[in-house]
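[recover] target loaded
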């Protein structure tokens, strides 16, 4: 198995040292080109045919990453923090350990080559603020992004976030993604990923997409709303349930009265309940179909 880092810090430094008109192409061809197949899954080209068209530069900005035009001297301190070799080694170890957990119990991963990088998150983006300055993206097998507004807290949290994304990366090697995926299925995937991360790094590294929801709010308010929407499908319909009203409204979707990442938190406790009830390990559960998991935890909604 091959796990390769694309050192974003080195490209960002080139961008800082280059004139503004060259930064877009440095971003496209030195940082994003290795992930071209990942972007293609979302129908995002490296460079649009028309001037200022939709491509990786525009898409990255919309997703909460710093745009190339923002990578200037004002970001020098962030790039310096991102340039720490020990940090990259820790990220490498997090991915290696995550994938090894599956291999050591005899699960043969179809994907043998993995690329990852850590991108600078826009500290003023609502996505970055809501997620306490760090997040990840690992839904396309073989490719993993971390996103970070670098500081002591976020640098320490990134390995757990990468473990979360590795779990997605493995799951979707065995479970085929569908565009009509339901809220329940998304909650299973997110619950598996965060339980996997805490199994490696402990509950003190529980992500803000879970920790910001207290159990009283979960049981008394969130669960009843989500229970009635488990079969909702399509991102335009399930976004508010999974990510909360603030993010739904940013995507021009209808709110449903839920706080940040309510579905993530509910999914985490749902999978925690499944693991305790069945005695399955998080590694075993990761590659199971959602229906098989959901039929075992119908009692979760009555707790």
């Amino acid at each position: 198995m091959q796990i390769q880092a694309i050192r974003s810090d080195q490209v960002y430094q080139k961008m800082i040292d280059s004139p503004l008109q060259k930064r877009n192409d440095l971003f496209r061809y030195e940082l994003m080109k290795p992930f071209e197949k990942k972007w293609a899954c979302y129908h995002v080209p490296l460079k649009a045919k028309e001037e200022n068209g939709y491509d990786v530069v525009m898409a990255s900005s919309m997703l909460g990453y710093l745009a190339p035009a923002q990578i200037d001297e004002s970001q020098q301190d962030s790039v310096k923090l991102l340039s720490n070799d020990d940090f990259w080694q820790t990220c490498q170890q997090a991915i290696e350990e995550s994938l090894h957990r599956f291999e050591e119990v005899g699960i043969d991963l179809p994907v043998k080559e993995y690329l990852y990088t850590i991108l600078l998150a826009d500290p003023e983006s609502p996505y970055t603020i809501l997620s306490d300055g760090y997040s990840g993206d690992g839904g396309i097998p073989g490719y993993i992004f971390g996103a970070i507004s670098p500081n002591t807290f976020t640098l320490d949290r990134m390995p757990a976030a990468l473990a979360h994304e590795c779990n997605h990366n493995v799951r979707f090697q065995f479970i085929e993604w569908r565009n009509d995926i339901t809220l329940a299925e998304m909650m299973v995937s997110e619950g598996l990923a965060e339980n996997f991360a805490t199994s490696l790094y402990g509950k003190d590294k529980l992500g803000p997409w879970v920790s910001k929801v207290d159990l009283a709010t979960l049981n008394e308010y969130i669960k009843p709303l989500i229970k009635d929407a488990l079969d909702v499908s399509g991102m335009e319909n399930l976004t508010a349930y999974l990510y909360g009203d603030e993010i739904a409204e940013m995507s021009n979707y209808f709110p449903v009265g839920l706080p940040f990442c309510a579905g993530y938190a509910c999914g985490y406790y749902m999978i925690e309940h499944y693991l305790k009830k069945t005695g399955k390990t998080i590694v075993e559960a990761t590659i199971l179909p959602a229906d098989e998991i959901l039929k075992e935890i119908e009692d979760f909604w009555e707790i």
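[recover] notes: Residues 13 and 57 are 17 Å apart (CA to CA).
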